[in-house]
Structures
1.
Amino acid sequence: MDMDHRCLVLSGRLLDGQDPAIVHARLAAAFGLEMSGLRERVFERAPLIIRRGLDPAAADAQVAQLRALGVEAESLPDSEALVWLRRGQQVRGPIPEAALTRYAQPGDQWCHDGGQQWFTWQPVAIEAPLPPPLAATVTATDQFTQATTTESSRQLPPPLPELEQQQDESSPLPPSSADEPAAAKGPLSRFAVAAALLGLLVMVWRSLAPLATLIALGALLFLYRRPLLRGRVYAVAALMLSATALFLWLAQPAPVATAAAHHYVARPLKPLAPSERAVAAEAPVPCKAQAVAPKNDEDRFLLTGQRVLTGRAQRKGDTYVAEAAVSVNGQCQPDALQLYVFRNGVFIGTALEAAASPATTKLADFDLVDDQHLRITLAQCTDKPGDCAVTTIRQIAVLPGASGWTLGELK
């Protein structure tokens, strides 16, 4: 900035004897602002530069006009070196760096415009005052001051209401956001921009959503501690995107268990082997009398192979499962049990690859959960009669295949 130019600084303090309500009303009318806007844009940020790049005459004229309204203002050399003040939780400014000694107070912190590090203000020791001038000098000085004041009063520009209509460069209106120097807005945070880009990325790769949410929260905290940096819109957008991706990622359905690659091949029901038929035929008469009578076509189909129904069967929808013994012993107890599965009245296969023998593997229970899922409980037995403690659960699915319905075991 050219050193011949001046900047207009408003301190935020009122002149002695001024009523704050009247002065605020005058300034609000002169600036064309509401009272709330005046407090937010001017007094809560004072001391601050309200005009830059003025020639000395225009700057002095505006200082006189502001003081006539009852507020303290001064014209200072304009320069590129600007600083910000932080007083409590309020950031004020910017002001020329050379004016720190005028406006900083003990306990304030200051920061270079565009910087991120705050420094504690250290007051400069005040030099001893000079001795009073001689009486003759005082008299000459007073005469010169009165003459200068009289001459200046003749050259003052029109009152502020007329300047309000002219809107020329001498108007003391505070600059809008478009008039403020770009450096005064503060740099854009790269952290916030990176968080926003990551938020877009996690909409595709949602597994990264937890990490992106933490980074977005970190960006907001980073900007909260650095009020001069811009990018809060990016940080908020990053948080919204990552939170949405996290919700979608958590709400996705769990993978459904699929059947093993091996499928039971549908095969027709075959008659018992000759030795098995002989055992069944030679069963005592009381055993035949105790046999369960068939209740439907599926049961009668099983009896064609000389099998003995146990009476345990379940039906769900179009699926029917029945238990039958392929052989019995002399006490009318089954030597081997098998589960037979039917779909729409058609036999599609056995649930067990080998019949369960009570001596080694007991078919403890089975449950047809629905028309496509069968749960089988097997108990491993020892040499001691009735000692079957360890159990195994098997899940069998009824699946449609290319050649019809078939069975598959779920893992």
2.
Amino acid sequence: MPDPIFSPAGPAAQAEPIRMRTLVLLRWFAIAGQMAAVVVAYWMGIGFAMTPVLALIAAAIAMNLWEGLMPPRRTSARLAVVHLSFDVVQISALMALTGGLVNPFALLVLAPVTVAATSLDSRQTVALGTATMVLISLASLFGLPLHDSQGRELVLSPILALGHWTALMIGVVFFAGYAHRVTGELQATSNALFATQVALAREQRLQHLGGVVAAAAHEMGTPLATIKLIAAELADELDDRPDLQADAIALRDSAVRCGEILRSMGRAGKDDLHLRSAPLRAVLEDAAEPHAGRGPAVEIRAEGPEILRDPAIIHALRNLIQNAVDFAASRVIIESQLGNGWLAVTIRDDGPGYPPALLARIGDPYLTSKRGGAQREGYEGMGLGLFIAKTLLERSGARLGFDNGGPGAVVTVRWPLDRILADARAPLGNNPNWLP
């Protein structure tokens, strides 16, 4: 089953859309602006319905004070919609009481729907945006006029009023759509980066565990050999005591079995962090090993220098190989090329390749439109694997290229030699102390 950490419908769907403290703070700013506008308009002698306007501002103050008296709580999407709807109604009513489209501050009615677009889903944003457009239209048609200090009514010409109304309608759609799109992309990128960190941390934990297992296998080998030797000698000397001889033989066989288990654990613990460098082919074999028996043949035709044996690089290459195996028809080929100052690794498959229209976006997080054709059984990708690989490899100094050719997909990873070559003569490092 897919990991809920990486699923956009997982924790993100249950997360607090916007904190109540943020809604209250934004409303205090709005109240301060409204009061300032009332004071300035009164000072300038602008005539408007003062008492209803102050009553609406008092309603907003009461809403904030009521929220301040409530115990702290998580904000649900429904509660956020209620508060933002209140703000839309309050600002629209103020707009209607202060001249409608004549009011130069009418643009502020776009604020609640913009906040909604950054924190709520598409359906709720569309509903609030539609309500905002309706309320703006009603405030435009039935708004009370403003009067200057001489008592003259302030009016807009019909063409300017229509233009102002059209601008507000476009503003609702543009600001809400733009804010929702940008917020969604930022959230997807944030989730994908979190997935990258989780994947790399998992790879490093596995390597730490492998180093400990290998060390344990090495240290316990000698005492087990001693136990085996003594048990064998006891078995030879206890011919006249069949019952004790059977126990000695069982002890010897158990010691042999323990030795076999430790040898296998030692092989599984080959990722000892003392091994900071390895030949290019060994690193590629390490990356390809989990996908060797998944169907398509994985052929490594790469020879190269000693390179850094970095868990981030291994994990990234493993993701690229997995993607190739997922879509390959029968074969995945891994090749290398060494140039003047650079090293390149190419991973190609004989699958359907990338859709040409998506080539420029390959490596973006949550790119759900995948290659054509049937995927390998167990495939659960949503574009995160390629994003993680691209992020980790770019951090190592590599540049990635995605293309189609002959006939499947081709991924090229190219490093500057000074970023990937390892000094095989450097002293071995210490394994990190993973014990508490």
3.
Amino acid sequence: MTADLSQIVKAYDVRGVVPDQWGEELAELFGAAFVRVTGADGIVVGHDMRPSSPGLADAFARGAARLGADVTLIGLCSTDQLYFASGQLSLPGAMFTASHNPAQYNGIKMCRAGAAPVGQDTGLAEIRGLVEQWSEQGAPEAAAQPGTVTERDTLADYAAYLKSLVDLTTIRPLKVVVDAGNGMGGHTVPTVLDGLPLDVVPMYFELDGTFPNHEANPLDPKNIVDLQARVRAEGADLGLAFDGDADRCFVVDEQGEPVSPSAITALVAARELAKEPGGTVIHNLITSWSVPEVVRENGGTPVRTRVGHSFIKEEMAKTGAIFGGEHSAHYYFKDFWNADTGMLAALHVLAALGGQDGPLSELVSSYDRYFGSGEINSTVADQAARMAAVKASYADQDGITIDELDGLTVTGHDWWFNLRASNTEPLLRLNVESDDPVTTQWITQHVLGMVRATG
């Protein structure tokens, strides 16, 4: 019987409930299909701390080796550590993780050699087609010469590479609280930060894919409450929070206040432009106005893209950009094969803070110039109709511009908002920003009134 992959193959990855929606049998077919589509004679495979991850990764490796590819298993790792291995070893890679999703979920993030993304338009649709075909007709014939499966530890090399990109040896001593959320940050942070002038206060470093303390999604404010309290209690200089697969990093200042990922994007952009003057920096269209302003002030060229890592990475490759940032706290570096790594962004923040005497709140204030609403989700029955109603209310107004690069972006003299439809849920996502909090609140309420109108 053909497997129904429509619920688990997403735009950029595979993700679903184990064993209800998929398991090791399908993982083995995904491994074979990955090799067939990429044409690889060698791949690298890693996994997170979820209970189902080791078995899924091993099954994927069996499928890949059966078709003749030599498999390097790197075991427990963060997603950006898998990207590092893919880049350093010049091999396609597969990471078994469901990021911040609950414990019963698992998934696969795949990339070509050099951490180039695999998504619907870059191989994932073909992989899905083969898995569906083979699940009905039987697994493909094994290669005459099956591949080998070997193990390799890349953590020390990953840590050394990151530290070669950002010099922290001369910073003033800092006290930093790190909340790993029982995710892969608990595996990577001790090695990456070892030997630096840092007093690290660990929180939830025990690897536990059941997430006993809180969901490993720092984008939701309730999941950083513990970190905020601990930073204040410890009198720390800052706090860092990683998501489940530790590819995203969120920052709180010495007062326990969240630092906008847009401000972090601007700060890191300024540092990267100091290293490579005149470079291009990519930002998605819901980052703050601060980002392109800071890029221009530092002699760089800002380029605006749609939301989503495939668009960022594609634009980085096309423009030769040195850095890219999203308001979801994904940070992309030319020096890291255009892939995203929250850990490298964290090192930049530590270097910037430790290289001067003021507190983090003061340092980031120059990069955080506007008042944002944050992303507000609304469940709606008809996304297109609500979007059309909002667009119509602003059409043909003097001084207002509308663009539809990604959803609906409406810009006034001192404010803007973006309204986008979710690809996977019946939601509209609203982001608003202006140069004063009253305007931000007014625009937010006005647009939400139309989005959530009944009848």
